Amino acid sequence: MTFKMPSTEQVRKLGDALGIDVTDSYADSVIDFIKPFADGYRLITSLADDVPEIKYPRSGYYRPEGEENKHGAWIVKAQIRGASNGKLSGKKVAIKDTYSLAGVPLTNGASVLEGYVPEFDAPVITRLLDAGAEIIGKSVCEYFSFSGGAATSTSGPVHNPRAWGHTPGGSSTGSGALVALGEVDMATGGDQAGSIRIPASLSGVVGIKPTWGLVPYTGIMGMDPTIDHAGPLTATVADNALFLEVMAGEDGYDSRQAGLKLDTYTKAIGQEIAGMKIGVVQEGFGQYDSHPDVDAGVREAAKVLQGLGALIEEISIPWHLIGVPIWSAIALEGTYHGMIKSALPRNIEGVYPVSLAGRLGSLRERANELPDTVKVGMLLGAYTDKYYRGYYYFKAQNLRRRLRAAYDKALSGYDLLLMPTTRMMASKIPSADAPLQTLMQHSWEQITNTCPFNITHHPAISIPCGLGEGGRPIGLMLVAKHWQESTLYRAAHAFERACHWQSMGSNAKR
Predict the structure, then answer these.
(1) Among 69, 70, 453, 457, which one has the highest count of C-beta atoms within 10 angstroms of its own C-beta?
(2) InterPro entries this protein is in (predicted)?
């Protein structure tokens, strides 16, 4: 890329866009003044970029077809072997298709990114490989990860292994499905509204959204930097704790990682929970479309924890129901600014994939390819940005403190909060020609209980706790104080070892 001086006409057009009256003579004066800057920009172009290293070789990739990809969960398969030994030796891993994996395509479920190949590995990738894991491919996700369902990815729908024709939960659809299928020991996820916990709930696996910043987000496509979280999906709680132990910690790039409080999460496995206080959040149940099997199944799970010696009490957090509008104002306008208007989020220190910015910079030319989920969200984000000057985004950012304080107040008297992860079980995947209203309902119906904690940054885990109508999994969500992931694992593992979750619920396997 070579920096070129602007023309008089270009300066005048820029002035028009900024509301500045620019005559030809004024434009020429501006050009004369900025000429010295040109050499600086050209120098920047000539210097080698500073991005994370690539430590482990990879020989290629392919798109699996037929029986090898029956559920549609793989976007590509590859083979990248890590260190010869380590905590994750022998573990097979799938990487959500939002993570930069050098030499392997990154599409984020989007047709407009087909053919894009990153030049570096996200630091989390290197950590997994350093610990001895083997990466065997990338998992499908929803288009720009902008859906909790399974109907928008450019590669087609991903089917729930426990309920064919139903969503495995999004946006990390392939990650949830591959873990449920047993094809991998762990899959990475990204969570902006519940995209780790929703597939964990609907697919019947374990998924954690850690405290914001605990896992570095460097080299991972997101939405708004203030709600982006990364974490693992696994079949068991013990594996989840193990993988988070490897993934967590500062990477030296991500400025969102100040003040981390790390722990050895695997030490929580096998601990008793007698005396632990758990608040059952009333507002997480009985919502207008809550399925009775879900509410009953989660309350049954609470009784299991009570039987293990935990103190279970009903509590009320009215602000919980205000989480969705606060999340919406931040996520929609934030994504509009960080992806559509500006190609990548600005004003944070970290690693910028400049080649990706170039691809996203031409998004307007192919905007009609976007699914309705992205179109509607970006139209609303653009509307509030243009006609309300960001008022709702800024006000929501302020109100997130009140929402956080409401949960903190409840957590001052309890070790954990408890509620359903998703208020319904996996829904059927809409047809490709489904009307806008059907697609939007499918894509956003599951975020009510999950998205508030993206705003407040509290760690939250989803574990399977039973089977409801049609044999579809039910997810139990536990929420802890910031940096208390070990408390989550302690309770989750106690529940897991106390019962066989598939023998619980209205459609239990007896």
Answers:
(1) 453
(2) Amidase, Amidase_dom, AS_sf
Give pTM, 2 decimals.
0.96
Retrieve residue 398's tokens.
Answer: 């302020």
Q: Where are the alpha helices (DSSP H) in 362-416?
A: 372-388, 391-411
Token duo for residue 226: 């203030």
Following DSSP, what letter does each residue of 252-277 receive, concatenated?
Answer: SS-GGGTT-----GGGGTT---TT-E
Number of domains in the chain: 2
254-306, pLDDT tens digit by residue? Answer: 999 999 999 999 999 999 999 999 999 999 999 999 999 999 999 999 999 99
Model confidence pLDDT, tens digit, residues 23-71: 999 999 999 999 999 999 999 999 999 999 899 999 899 999 999 999 9
Q: What distance in Å separates the CA atoms of residue 104 and residue 114, rounded to the nearest whole number?
A: 11
Are 272 and 494 within 8 A, CB to CB?
Answer: yes
- C-alpha 285/C-alpha 306 separation (Å) is 18
Following CA atoms 177, 181, 183, 188 in sequence, which dihedral angle do they give, to the nearest 10 degrees? 30
Catalytic residue among 91, 96, 138, 209: 96
236 Cβ contact partners less than 8 Å away, ≥ 6 residues apart:
206, 496
Amino acid at 426: A
* 71 and 37 belong to one structural domain: no
CATH number at residue 382: 3.90.1300.10
Which residues make Cβ contacts (< 8 Å) with residue 460, sequence separation at least 6?
Answer: 197, 208, 209, 450, 453, 477, 478, 479, 480, 488
Which residue is catalytic, options 139, 145, 147, 195? 195
Q: What are the Cα distances from residue 295, in Å, to 316, 419, 479, 495, 508?
A: 16, 8, 17, 17, 15
- 35 catalytic? Reply is no
In a shared domain, residues 84 and 34: no
Regarding whether 37 and 73 lie in a shared domain, the answer is no
171 part of the active site: yes
